[in-house]
Amino acid sequence: MKLRRNIFFIVLLTAISLIIDAPKNYPINFAIFGQDISFKISSPGISLGNFERSLNIKQGLDLQGGTEVTLEADMSNLAEEDRLDALDSAKEIITRRVDLYGVAEPSVKTVISQDSYRILVALPGVEDPAEALELIGQTASLDFRELPEATDSATYADFKITELTGKDLQKATVGFSTQNGSPEINLQFTPEGGKKFADITARNINKPLAIFLDEFPLTTPIVQQQISDGQAVISGEYTVDEAKNLVITLNAGALPVPIEIIRQQNIAPTLGAQSVASSIQAGAVGLLLVALFMILNYGWLGFIAVIGLIIYGLLTLAIYKLIPITITLPGLAGFILSIGMAVDSNILVFERMKEEIRKGNDWHRSMELGFGRAWDSIKDANIATLITTFVLFNPFDWNFLNSSGLVRGFALTLFLGIVIALFTGMFVTRNLLRALTSSHRSDTTGIKERTNLNGLK
Amino acid sequence: MDSNKQYNILRPMRYWWLYFLISLTVIIPGIYSLLQFGLKPGIDFTGGSIIVWDLIASEDDLKSYAQESNIIIRDIDSQGTIWTITTDPVSKIDYQTFKSKFPETQELTFDTVGPALGAELLQKTLSAIILASTLILLYIAYRFRSIKFGVSAILAMLHDSLVLLGIFSILGYYFGVEVDTLFVTALLTILSFSVHDTIVVYDRIRELKKKHGYLDFEEIVNRAVVETMGRSINNSLTIIFMLLAMYLLGGETTKWFIFALLVGTISGTYSSTFTAAPLLILWDYLAKKKNKQ
Question: Cβ B235–A348 below 8 Å, yes or no?
């Protein structure tokens, strides 16, 4: 009964993986009995509450082509306690610029390592990155603008630059109104900025004063009265998140950090496509060799192992799509390597089975003993490899270890490979073998003979 | 049983000195090369730029225009129309100037690494190796309740890293092969593979010791090695098949990465049987000798 349930589970899992693995909109045309049949295979998208997956394979920059830039923010002019805020602001600014540039799925991340504050920008699919970089590398510019003549039909273009800029702003923070507790934004000006601000507010009472960042308006509060102490409050209908975001962008102007490119990688999309094609070809040839080797070496046992290996491949691909994992070239290598390692548990078990048969056990018992006794070494050996993938992946972002995307991609695919291989090697093949032998129990002599043919003594 | 007879004939551990000798013939030239020439660090370590262009041009043209654009060339190489130019770190502006001299060029890759990043990578690599080794050592010592197993496994692992580093040092000197982030990844993977393989042998030793405690330790190791040999070779072969396919058919970018994995797999398979196992015997022998005194 248990066996039947397990087999059902394996079949179900394989079927689900197949559906997930199916390529998007893959047309199938063929003719059968004189009838033309034509339809499209399509893997469905998944949408369960917050869990949404389009089920496309995500390709890394090295496969898809594009630009990856590592920027270093020069924090030497900033006080220690302002540095994190400044980095967040710089990241926010760069994200806005990248969004303006219109790149699909860009990624902007901050990395703090020892004394260096870095921002990693990935722009997939950008063909000529020079222009994009020009935009990203600039230091943010913030200024305050006034409306010379108050008209009802004023547009942002009518605002004129004042003498007050981001340099005059010391810092922006989120505060809460003492009257109703709603979030508001506090602006703290430098002494000199406070004076300029007093002048500007004096001449703009009841008029809007716009704050522009990189030539784009952020917010346009109305001046209520002259403010001469260098402390301003912008209140409005902000949510806490909106207020926080505005503060981050304002600080980008207040805490401008010069940004320098310390690493840049451009990869042509054609080169990536070529790498994918050749890697897939290599994987297919390798897989074929491994399958052939297993069947020649272990007979029909090997054949079952190959079926396990195919299920392994389907499962892995499905999990790649579900998580989703961004496939890079080393990641692809990690996956292909894991196919070679996936049969390791099979080989350990089969060799063990041979030994048990040699000792005079019947076939069925040898199989169970083989799986049972091989498990100890399979477990220990794989834990050692898992330790290495842990160090390579560096999940806690430890400063003293590498956190490069390439190395991580490799570690992640190798990790998944080991875990899935353990599942297919121990659970799937074992149940398949059990299912086959339970219906052919009487055939044990035939199997013995066959194993004898494989050079056993 | 006839299988017992088989063990009497096959006592591979009698020739332990031969295995160490074989290892040394690979490792000593490697160490010599490492000390003499070191490794050839790629731009990941030194900082610099790699420009890959698809372009019909002459080397002299490229060189003179590079000089005009303030670009200092370290190395220039072409395969058909694909030019690979390695230089000191190139600024954006200089690169644009250089590129504008060849309007028909097709940029395949342009990769620049600042010099600070290189030193950092080196330090992080060392940390990773030390951390991984320590964790594995602790794990093995715990699983096998013996420091002897842990240390011998780590020594076998060190053997494999020395083989890999030595071979890449020689390749670097004679063929200009560089080590980069991917090489580091390969090195760490090989460390784990090496231990993976060693544990399978050790596990068998542990099992046989439990079952046949009356046997001499060397005899137990002999049996364990013979019994696990088939699995060891078969498993390595499947990995080697995959790697060979990738080496021959896969792209240029990962070629040396795959080669490093290939060297490591072969060395790892060898060392688990012919380094890790005899080390145990040697340790046992030395410990007994000490006890007698």
Answer: yes
Of B131, B243, B250, which is closest to A391 when you measure between CB atoms? B131
- Residues of B whose CB is below 8 A from A265: 109-112
Q: Mention every residue, 6+ apart, whose C-beta is less than 8 A from residue B64.
A: none
CB of A126 less than 8 A from some CB of B: no
Average of per-residue pLDDT values in chain B? 85
What domains appear along chain B, each with residue ranges and CATH number?
Answer: 23-42+117-288 (1.20.1640.10), 48-113 (3.30.70.260)
pLDDT at A450: 43
Cis, bond preceding A269 (omega within 30 deg of 0): no
Query: Cβ(A377)–Cβ(B228) under 8 Å?
Result: no
Average pLDDT rounded to a whole number, residues A149-155: 69
CA distance B293 to chain A (A): 36
Report d(CA A142, CA A145) in Å as an integer.
10
Contact A137, A71 (CB under 8 A): yes
Please indicate whether, in this complex, the C-beta atoms of A382 and B193 are within 8 angstroms of each other: no
* Best residue in A264, A345, A382 for a mutation probing chain B (most B CBs within 10 Å): A264
Q: Which residues pair with A112 in a beta bridge?
A: A117
Chain A residues with CB inside 8 Å of B143's CB? 380
Contact A193, A160 (CB under 8 A): no
**pTM (2 decimals)?**
0.74
**Assembly ipTM:** 0.79
Rounded to whole angstroms, how far apart are CA atoms A451 and A454? 5
Whether residue A254 contacts residue A189, with contact meaning beta carbons closer than 8 Å, is answered with no
Q: What is the reported pLDDT for B267? A: 94
Task: Note whether B84 and B77 are within 8 A (CB).
Answer: yes
Overall average pLDDT of the A124-132 stretch: 70
Q: What distance in Å separates the CA atoms of residue B293 and residue B283, rounded to the nearest whole number?
A: 16
Note the pLDDT tens digit of each residue in A393-405.
887 777 777 666 6
d(CA A319, CA A296): 31
B99 CA to centre of own chain: 37
B143-180 tens-digit pLDDT: 888 888 989 998 999 999 999 999 999 999 998 888 88
Report cis status (omega within 30 of 0) of the bond before A324: yes
- The full set of domains in chain A, from first to last, is 66-267 (3.30.1360.200), 268-453 (1.20.1640.10)
Sign of CA dihedral A212, A216, A221, A223: positive
Chain A nearest C-alpha distance from B159 (Å): 17
Q: What value does the mean pLDDT take over residues B274-278?
A: 90
